[in-house]
Design goal:
This protein is α+β, with helices and mostly antiparallel strands. Helix content is about 40%, strand content about 40%. Strands 1-2-4-3 form a four-stranded mixed β-sheet. It starts with a strand and ends with a strand.
Length: about 90
């Protein structure tokens, strides 16, 4: 499964376009965000991408979960959003 990493300075419209493309091609995608700003941008991107794929008859849902990842040899808690058609 494709994992798209979202940062606090990511542009939601760009992430939404990438997310829509991955969902169309692979059927589902996963967004990964660390920190409040990144989570905010990820949620905006999911909302925007729903509008991108809706004309194709695709209704996206989002399932959030926690994930432990390693950044610079430190354990960090990320939030992962599984995005798939309903």
């Amino acid at each position: 499964m494709e994992i798209l990493k979202v940062a606090a300075d990511s542009k939601p419209k760009s992430v939404a376009g990438a997310l829509a493309a991955v969902v169309r091609e692979m059927g589902s995608a996963e967004l990964q965000a660390v920190g409040a700003g990144a989570v905010n941008q990820a949620i905006k991107a999911i909302a925007i991408s729903r509008g991108f794929v809706a004309p194709n008859g695709i209704d996206l849902i989002c399932i959030p979960a926690f994930a432990e990842i390693e950044i610079d040899d430190q354990e960090r808690t990320a939030i992962r959003f599984l995005v798939e058609p309903r």
